[in-house]
Amino acid sequence: MTLVKHNWTVEEIKAIYNRPMMELLYEAATVHREHHEPNTVQVSTLVSIKTGGCPEDCAYCPQAARYHTDIKGNSLMSVDEVKEKALQAKSIGSSRVCMGAAWRNVKDGEEFDRVIEMVRTINKLDMEVCCTLGMVTENQAARLAEAGLYAYNHNLDSSENHYEKIISTRSYQDRIDTISNIRKTNVTVCSGGIIGMGESIDDRAGMLAALSTLNPHPESVPINALVPVEGTPLQDQQTVEIWEMVRMVATARIVLPLTQVRLSAGRNSMSPEGQALCFFAGANSIFAGEKLLTTPNPDMNEDMKMFEALGLKMQKPFVKKAQPTTVEAEDSKLKSLGEKPRWSRPTLQKQ
Ligand code: SAM
Ligand code: DTB
Ligand code: SF4
To answer: What residues line ligand 3, using a CB cutoff of 6 Å?
Structure first.
């Protein structure tokens, strides 16, 4: 059996990432089948509830006010507008709506009250609700939880080392603090990052090490390929090669066995065959719908054709799956088992 390991090192993760592709795929697909139904993919739809004008300097982001990009900014949507978008998403089979706001952090007041109302409204549609609103305090996390939020997305984005070259207005620790504020509630954690921002393989492994030493692991991890947007400092980055995406997804699947791994930004530049390899390697979630937040996503009909060709089914909302477990729970499992675990685990460190 596979134990959920919380003390992965960068070296161990890098060794997995660099395995010969066929071995990596076989191992990742094996771990995937042990914990997940391999023909089911969860589908989320993004709604940009507040677009552009963000004070942060994330070098990849078309919504940062300081970069001159072509996106059209908008103030916070109304609850009715969001409800309509959620109903559209439901009609295409999405089980989750993820509302994104170009904010540095949540501020208490009328706008946050409106977001709380959006969460309640989408909940009543029997869909999972996710928000990504920037940093949140413990109190704000508790209000979101009380309104029925299912997941909160807050990405680490890269390794701590590379992060500092990409964002200067918010620290890595700030991000970890927001994740731990969410963890104090019953809202699930969605946290991942981006490849293709000029990082090394050490940095990719470093990001997965940071995510896989969280206790418990995030329930979902989005793996984004950079969408280089004109006007941002990363506009000239080369498109991520499909092999890199497959390696990143496979490695994430192995080190985060119970987590939902989401093939996120960048699908527009991937063929259906490339995406099929990602699903084989353990990706079991996507963002569907014509747009991500501000950039294009594959056409829904094309996604449906791909699902049909691959025999994939869409996951229903609120499906109870194996949930990430804690270091302490794994320890007691180990004690009660006579079996040899798949991973040889050095002394477990309390996180
Ligand atoms: N403002 C909030 C925040 O930063 O947490 C929420 C929205 S922000 C756009 C959510 C995530 O989208 C970022 O953390 C980043 O990982 C991803 N993202 C933004 N622009 C991207 C791009 N051009 N390519 C790939 N991913 C991107
Ligand atoms: C995530 O990791 N990727 C999504 C979601 N979480 C919010 C956002 C991708 C944004 C891509 C650029 C854009 O469309 O603006
Ligand atoms: Fe703002 Fe989020 Fe974009 Fe950073 S990623 S500039 S915080 S919207």
So the answer is: 54, 56, 58, 61, 63-64, 102, 104, 134
